[in-house]
Specification:
Order of helices and strands: HEHEHEHEHEEEEEEEEEHEEHEEH
Structural class: alpha/beta
Shape: globular
CATH class of the largest domain: Alpha Beta
Helix content: 25-40%
Largest sheet: 11 strands, mixed
CATH topology of the largest domain: Rossmann fold
CATH architecture of the largest domain: 3-Layer(aba) Sandwich
Number of domains: 2
Number of strands: 17
Strand content: 25-35%
């Protein structure tokens, strides 16, 4: 819960953050963040953007390709704000229907965006700004990207949230080591968050950025439940997605099932390309020994299999409230 003072603090602190992300006076922005039960999405940004000298047209998740094309033409929109899982399929279809489509700035959050998708935005739409904001539903802003920071690195916001990186026993890890993220809100008092587990992985270290800001940066490593544990080893969802960039994969979902002692890993991928499932599977098994057919048991035993399903963009099921895709579904736990 929030008091009015807590809410005002959150809104006030976000405005200079949006400036650093690339918003400028006179921008005309389409806000596609999800509306619903999450105050960290549409409802929050409506308040934040209304206090800035720019124009904002909010569609939430109901935006269509027709809406996008209309707003770029009649509203003269030059900025798009949203989740990659929603906006990338829309933008690619819009570009097919209107080859001359241009968009100056794309600000995204919620989930990481692949480097191939960022390159597509720059090359096909002429985007000069592609930046990420990292936030937690209950804790607001955690980090942001300046123009000189890429990948999943984010400047931290230590005056708003203190971020700890801990091991499985909630003990702090050395600086620069990966672990689970805990946040302690420094400007939220009515419903304080103290060492609050947000369910994400990352690492924090000092960084002297070319933009001139020196201090802690947060490298986002994905969801804490985004780990694929099979055959006594672990592969992370982020590692698999990075390995699939050669196929221009935008989204990945991994499901693990076990039937009669036989484990099957199902990798479902979204890509604008028409992919061959066998090629994708062979690539994954070459990249990750854990995912190949070999095991430590009798060669006659059939105990493991990796399968790949190739889907068009938008083919994976999105959460109706958050718009996100479940990265790893472990049916061994669900069905136990």
């Amino acid at each position: 819960m929030y008091s009015r003072t807590d809410w005002e603090n959150m809104i006030r602190e976000a405005i200079p953050l949006f400036r650093t992300l690339g918003l400028e006076n006179g921008d005309r922005l389409i806000n596609t963040l999800y509306g619903g039960g999450l105050y960290g999405g549409l409802s929050t940004t409506l308040c934040e953007l209304s206090r800035m000298p720019l124009e904002c047209y909010s569609t939430a998740q109901a935006i269509s390709v027709d809406d996008l094309l209309m707003l770029c033409e009649r509203f003269e929109a030059n900025v798009l704000l949203g989740l990659p899982v929603l906006i990338m399929p829309l933008l690619r279809e819009a570009k097919q229907r209107r080859p001359g489509l241009r968009l100056e700035k794309v600000i995204y959050g919620g989930t990481p965006m692949t480097e191939t998708d960022k390159d597509w935005l720059r090359q096909e739409l002429g985007a000069r700004v592609v930046t990420s904001i990292l936030a937690a539903n209950d804790g607001a802003q955690l980090g942001y990207q300046c123009a000189r920071m890429g990948g999943t690195l984010h400047h931290a916001c230590p005056d708003y949230n203190l971020i700890e990186v801990v091991d499985e026993n909630l003990a702090p890890v050395p600086e620069g080591e990966p672990g689970e993220l805990l946040i302690t809100s420094l400007q939220k008092f009515e419903g304080p968050l103290i060492r609050y587990r947000i369910g994400d992985l990352g690492r924090v270290f000092h960084h002297d950025c070319p933009c001139g800001v020196s201090g802690p940066v947060l490298e986002y490593l994905g969801r804490a439940d985004g780990q694929v544990k099979v055959k006594g080893a672990t592969v992370t969802h982020a590692e698999m997605l990075a390995a699939l960039e050669v196929f221009r994969v935008s989204q990945l979902q991994v499901e693990i099932v076990s039937v009669d002692g036989r484990e099957t890993v199902i990798a479902r991928v979204e890509s604008p390309l028409a992919l061959d499932a066998g090629e994708v599977r062979d690539h994954l098994t070459r990249q990750f020994k854990t995912l190949d057919q070999e095991h430590l048991f009798n060669d006659a035993l059939d105990v493991f299999e990796l399968t790949v399903e190739c889907l068009p963009e938008g083919g994976l099921t999105r959460n109706a409230t958050s718009g996100k895709i479940k990265p790893v579904i472990d049916r061994r736990l669900v069905d136990a």
